[in-house]
Amino acid sequence: MHEQYQLNEKRHSFLERVRSAREQREAEQRLKHAATLIQKRFLGIDPRFSDTEEEKQRSELNCKRIVNDIDIPTTVIAVHVTVEYLLLVRYLLLSSEASDLENNIVIVALTPSSAFSWLHLMRKILCKCIIFLANLRVSYGIGNYVLDHVNDTKLNLYLHLLLSFTSTASWAALKSEEGVCLHVFALGGKLRPSMDKLCERLLINLVHADFYPQLSVTDIGATLLLRPICRDEIDDNVLSQYSRCILTTPALIWHLKHEANSFKLNLLNGKLLLRCMQFLCERSANDEFFAKLEVGTEVCILGNIVNMAYLEHEILQSNRDLFLKFINLILCCCRGNIAVKKQSMSYWQPFFGWYKKPISGRLQEALPFVTKQIQLLWDRTLVLGLFAELCVSPVNPVVEEESGSHHSIDTDGIKLKAKNLSISILSKLRRGAPKLKPKQVPSKLKPTQAAKEAVFGLAMYQNVLNTFSPLKYDVLSGLCYQDFLLPKIWETLVASDIESAVNHYLQMFVSDKSQSSSESLSFIVFFESATYLMTILDDYELFTLEKPFQVRQLISMAHFCNLFIFRSVWEKIVGRYTFQNIDDVLRNCTFNVVLGFLLLIYNRDCRRPFVPKDFWLMKDLKSSVFLNEVNRGNKKALFIIQRIPHVIPHRERIKLFRKYVASEKASLAAARLFEDQMSVIITIHRARIVEDGFRQLSQLPGRILKGIVRVKFINEQGLDEPGIDQDGVFKEFLEEVIKNIFDPALNLFKLTNEGHLYPSPTSYIHENYLLLFEFIGKMLGKAVYEGICVDILLASFFINHLIGRTASKYHSSIDELSSLDADLYKQLTFIKHYEGDMNDLGLTFACDEDILGEVVTHELRPGGRTIPVTKENKISYVHLMAHYRMFVQIKDQIAAFMRGFHAIISPEWLRMFSADEFQRLLSGDTCDIDLHDLRKHTQYFGGFHNNHRVIVWLWEILANDFSVEERRLFLKFVTSCSKPPLLGFEYLEPPFSIRCVEVNDDEDEGDTLGSVIRGFLAIRKEDPVSRLPTTSTCFNLLKLPNYHRKSTLRDKLRYAIHCGTGFELS
């Protein structure tokens, strides 16, 4: 049974195979029969036509007759006509691919006598094929991908026909292969160049028949797109149509490159790029070609050409000038529709900015890809091609002892190295650049080839910045990312001759007021890039790694900018050009860019010094002459004192500040006298100093607080304290208020890691906390206004807000974050330098904060919770996080404090100082106490005099026995501030005083005739060894017993200053 079953199974399998083979033969016969019917229908001949010349001519004439009889409308296509044409297309394709030459229509073209007729015939067929394709796209929306199966088949047939008959590559009649009629194939190999010429003529005819305008890029593909321009000789008509219809396709090259790995080979080894650029550069921005372009498509041409240049960067170096000319031409065309600012009929585009005309939705959707193309313009590949000569030019060598180690992380060593290096560099700069005499013509820089290359290349990038303003920081970051570029450009442009460079660029600055020359544009974009770079570099990169700029280069750049800005404002330029109006200078873009870099590098030096002492001063400028110009209201002098005050010695600026205050006091006093106003009198309970002061003074305007404020204290028993306030009592009140309210325990202020104060982020738990901040701002402003030094240290980032140093667009919060939150600074630095996958960190543009036990999420930018941190945006995240921590968290407190402070102190006065200089203005100088100056300006009472025994002992003890820290404690013991006044003790108010006392403070009735005589004559009574020195800090008064021994004075004084026993009211 089993064997019978296997036999039946084999028989059944055999029959199935036989049946399948029979069905396959029948299908092939039907297919052949269908092809025969098609041939009969359209050719009217027997498909088995012979090789006779007569039959070939008859078939050719029949083809002409049939095709001429077919009427293909150009608008609405009849169904039966479309079907007939599709049958013709199918026949032509089958015929061209047929290995049987008897059935191959290409044979007609091989005969010289019929070649012209064949060309005319195929031209007519292909032109109508283009019309069918165009109508198919319009009717069925090919661009939107809504074709059904039938129309998709039509599309493929039409494209296949165009591809087959515009190139001989697929012609079977010209392929050498084994088989019958081998002699014909050999003949075809000889005829291939002629057939290629025939296809070229066919392509030319198609182009003249609007080949490009009728078809979209999605129709023709990359191969067919390039065929008309693959020829050695291309007329302007072909290039015009190609540029207008193909290159205006948004991000065409981008998509083709990402879809075809071999696309680079199809770009004709750079010929296409060169031909397009040459054709376009022969036209001006006002040419008819550009006028006929659709709105916004100029940028598509720019993107596609840049993309091609990126793919063919090998030829860029030899054709650099042509490429730059093309870029500048297209940018000029783009600027025609870009509005400088918002207008009534303008449209905001993220790519263009304000645009005068609306752009199509197709271009709007493709702009992200066009942006990616244009971003290739500052990719490293193209930058290397544009600055090839500069990249190989050597940088000025650094002396070995100046270079040092670049990998040490010793902070003190770095600072010392920077100081020594800067002194060496500055001395060389000054020795190598002698001062010019007034009538001496300045030396001119001799531009090298690398310098010319840098100028034209940078000028192009500045044109990009001027045209596409929303891409400004993208362009700058791209240029800054090339570590090699900016340092070499600086060395090339300046050539280490600072004086000559300053004079050269000053003349360029005033002669090219329109800032349109290549040199002006390159100058601007260099300092724009350098400024942007300085904002994103941290101290470790800048001073330890010295990347990308070396410290010596930073010093030379600072020296150049300082001279350039000062001379452009204060001095007359050597040559025939002079500044007639300072306002013209201040409006100049070149001036403002250099000024921005100067202020940035100066602020960096203030925070972390790397230049020598007095580096920023203009030593040839006489302070007395300059201050006279300030008093006269000279605009140039006022600009210098407000924007670059560092060129003036600090002491002179302090004097000017005190002069401003004295002048305002005098005018306010005259006004009060005229208005018959009385001074403000407040009553303060000792147990409620802050509360009473806030209640009585917080609502007073700044104009009143600038006047005299009298204070009457009430002691803890509720009794009025004796004494008349002659400014000393108010000084004590002010010091006590500031001392109490800045106490971190009150939670209005917190301490940084370095012990400096800043507003507490959780200070809002206080009732009326913003009014409290405004009040303390007024009190601190009053202390500065009256010249009262207070012993508090404010955080530098907080001071920068007070003095207006954070208004710059290039201000970087991360520079000072380490002083506030060292852990966060380390974390952000790690993120900034992280080279791995940012997705592993799982960060978004949001941060969580624990507020009184509740976790609150803050977004660093709108929608930040859903925006991941990537490699491209991590720098932005780092700066936004630092900005949030140092400003956003406490912006309301800072604003309230500034309102109060500026109500007393004019913001214009504060612009004269850096953060460190303001801190010294607030709390005194940081240097050691000048005992000679203190003794010279000390007043004596109670019989003491300069040569009194106890006074001589006192100065000897301070000079010889006390340390620097003990001398500061002594000064704080007497004046409540450990630092001396900035201008010396001559300006201490009230003056430093010493009085001889014989009794305790509660029994002291002041100087009497007897006490003065006894003190003056040093009449010995019992040695007051049981008494300590005391002070009245409100009067800067030291009350000193008449000790009999120097050792007693030293021990008692040392004990008093360490224990703080002297803070009592006289």
Automatic annotation (TrEMBL):
<dbReference type="InterPro" id="IPR000569">
    <property type="entry name" value="HECT_dom"/>
</dbReference>
<dbReference type="GO" id="GO:0014069">
    <property type="term" value="C:postsynaptic density"/>
</dbReference>
<keyword id="KW-0833">Ubl conjugation pathway</keyword>
<dbReference type="Pfam" id="PF00632">
    <property type="entry name" value="HECT"/>
</dbReference>
<dbReference type="GO" id="GO:0016874">
    <property type="term" value="F:ligase activity"/>
</dbReference>
<dbReference type="GO" id="GO:0000209">
    <property type="term" value="P:protein polyubiquitination"/>
</dbReference>
<dbReference type="GO" id="GO:0006511">
    <property type="term" value="P:ubiquitin-dependent protein catabolic process"/>
</dbReference>
<keyword id="KW-0808">Transferase</keyword>
<comment type="pathway">
    <text>Protein modification; protein ubiquitination.</text>
</comment>
<feature type="domain" description="HECT">
    <location>
        <begin position="705"/>
        <end position="1066"/>
    </location>
</feature>
<dbReference type="GO" id="GO:0061630">
    <property type="term" value="F:ubiquitin protein ligase activity"/>
</dbReference>
<dbReference type="InterPro" id="IPR044611">
    <property type="entry name" value="E3A/B/C-like"/>
</dbReference>
<protein>
    <recommendedName>
        <fullName>Ubiquitin-protein ligase E3B</fullName>
        <ecNumber>2.3.2.26</ecNumber>
    </recommendedName>
</protein>
<keyword id="KW-0770">Synapse</keyword>
<feature type="active site" description="Glycyl thioester intermediate">
    <location>
        <position position="1034"/>
    </location>
</feature>
<keyword id="KW-0436">Ligase</keyword>
<dbReference type="InterPro" id="IPR035983">
    <property type="entry name" value="Hect_E3_ubiquitin_ligase"/>
</dbReference>
